Please model this.
Amino acid sequence: MALYKIDGCQWNCYPDTTVLINKLDIRDQKKLNDIEKQITLLRAIQAEQETKFENVDFAFYRSLHKKLFDDLYYWAGRLRDINISKKGTAFCDHSELEMIGNAKFGQLKRKNYLCGMNDDRFIAEITELYHELNMLHPFREGNGRTLRLFITLLVRNAGRDIDFSACDIDLLTIATIKAAQGEMTMLGEVFREIIT
Model:
């Protein structure tokens, strides 16, 4: 679980903890992290193999979160109703998530889901989209995993491949922080390395 600054920092947590209330009633953060990692890895593999890239909109994106986290959280696939920030980055106001999410996916549809682009434009578009969806951060937890799953499906639909396992996650995190500060170069370089 990522450490967020949250309006009401114990929202949806067990009393006097920051451990999210979960379907398995795990109240130890380390144990929950371990179980969550195992379950979401399995669900991500299944989703990559079974998910059809059809009717791709903001509801589709939310359905990916539900696929990854439904075994763990009652709110899987639902938009957060609190504001959050992380490492000095404030994410989209919760009251604007639906409107902005729908707009972003409308833009993506108008761009034909990035199909038929040359390499440079494709990398630029993926970089911008990754940054924008990261700044949206529509869920209470699991935003990075949902975003990586979606980007994987999008890249493959465009006739390319991506390997997030070839990427240093710490480097990706630093690149997303830099992007939030207006410097997109590093994030673009990360994608140039892992997309074929």
